[in-house]
Amino acid sequence: MNEHFKKSFQFSIGIAVITFVLAALFSIISSILLQGVGWLAGLLIVLGIVLVGVIFDMFGIAATAADEVPFHSMAAEKVYGAKQSIVIVRNRDRFASFCNDVIGDIAGIVSGTASATVVLQIAFGFGFPENSSQHMLISITFTSIVAALTVGGKALGKFFGVHASTKIILFAGRAIAFMEQNLRIKILPSLKKKSKRNSQ
Fold first, then answer.
1. CA–CA separation, 94 vs 107, rounded Å?
2. Contacts of 120 (CB under 8 A, 6+ apart)
3. Is the pLDDT of residue 4 over 50?
4. Across the chain, what does the average pLDDT equal?
5. Rounded-to-integer distance, Cα 94 and Cα 83, Å
6. Selection from 60, 41, 120, 89 nearest residue 188 by Cα
7. Can you give the residue ranges of every domain in the chain?
8. Which residues, at least 6 apart from 164, have a Cβ–Cβ distance to it below 8 Å?
9. Which of 154, 155, 38, 156 is nearest to 107 (CA)?
10. Chain segment 137-166, per-residue pLDDT in tens
């Protein structure tokens, strides 16, 4: 019990640090991209951030829904990314936590901040004062649209995550295999054979 708590605590601390770093990077990049662009380009950037959150949420759901067995057959046939897919499924709780809680939540927060910037760009572009009723109407409308796209997109992503989990996780496994081989970055732990005790 103490060992399990220790590992969970260490993972939580690691996730918190990663979240801090990624949130800072997301905020900096979105701020740089939004500087000096029109409101239409800003709108596309916000939609892009929302899309990132939706996609990673789908990956997290797919990891929790995926079955490990099909990937063993693929690995036996030397299918590219199959071994990485097995590791993802075996570490589904951590993978889902990273995709849903880290990337998904960061995307939600950053999209909200970026939305506020785009609202100002739209209001000033049409010559509306900051505290005017027109500015407030634009803010409410734009925020509602972003929220609807986020929630609706994640609902659709959950459907595909559950019903196409094998294909989605294989895609993730291939992407990770590509990064590990070409960028020389170790993303996933090594694949270890399950002991008879663990397989029971």
1. 18
2. 130
3. yes
4. 87
5. 17
6. 89
7. 2-194
8. 62
9. 154
10. 998 999 999 999 999 999 999 999 999 999
Q: Is the pTM of this model over 0.85?
A: no
Measured distance CA(88)–CA(63) in Å, rounded: 7
Alpha helices in 66-104 (DSSP H): 69-76, 82-90, 92-96
- What distance in Å separates the CA atoms of residue 143 and residue 12, rounded to the nearest whole number? 31
Place of tokens 């892009």: 48
Write out the DSSP string of 100-143: IIIIIHHHHHHHHHHHHHHHHHHHHHTT--TTSHHHHHHHHHHH
- The span from the CA of 151 to the CA of 14, in Å, is 28
With beta carbons less than 8 A apart as the criterion, state whether 63 and 171 touch: no
